[in-house]
Amino acid sequence: MSSFRLTLLRHGATTAPAGMLIGHSDWPLSALGVQQLASRDAYFARFPPSSVASSDLCRCADFAQQLAASAGVDCHIDSRLREIHFGELDGLAEKSPAQQAALALWQQDLSASLLGIENWADFSARIIIATQAWLQASQGEHRVLITHGGVAKALLLDWLGLPLARHNQLWLAHAGLITLYWDDAYPPILQGIDNDI
Is the model's pTM score more than 0.70? Predict the structure, then answer.
């Protein structure tokens, strides 16, 4: 794989109701979300993508395909790169008091098995394997993953060797981006997190 710039770009805001956990639910970008991602045009003009990957959910895939087409490169779509599945809460408009209490517990301990939420270790393994496969198959100096907040968080925890308990210290806003320097001979180097859009 040699060395390259790796960018993780979170999708923009969606049309889902505020507070809804959308996980595997396939809500499209809102007008605001489209505008948020368009604000990254200057970044990609400066650092043109050599390879683009995305989950198959439209809030990521639609922009990923547009970005790849504008750069003249292929777009790798992989369902294994989806956000964590939020179990019985996934796409649920209203949460009961009991569900809200269980969710609060889970947010403090992501290893807990509550509400049918996808096991964190399984989620993390799925996206790490999928990302590694894409990176090994892709080429060029700037590889871009259009992704979800939880996916970005799980990848950073793994790449930086951080314990799961540190998850609340990592945050990526809609259309926020993370840049890393990747070299096979060294651990990934975090270059920056940009949540200003």
Answer: yes
